[in-house]
Write the structure tokens for this entry.
Amino acid sequence: MTSVTILREAEAELREAVAYYEDKRPGLGFDFASEVEASVESIRHFPERWPLRSDATRRYLVQHFPYIVVYLFVNDHIWVIAVAHCKRHPHYWSHRVPSAE
């Protein structure tokens, strides 16, 4: 099975979002974390299913929440570089993508 590494920054984003949703309603943070986990599992099983973008990333829309999992698929390895809200500060994570230089 394809291995996955989640960058520290992406893990921090996930924790912050879980805390936010848990504050909104007890259990909602758990629901969000479960959906992100399911997203990562889908990516793990079908890493090339989502379109390759010009910056070499791929994006998976998390079910039921306005978040995307931004990842790179390089040398049969998945690098999750962001768990990003769809409407807040687009591309704030772009510095995490290695340049092609």
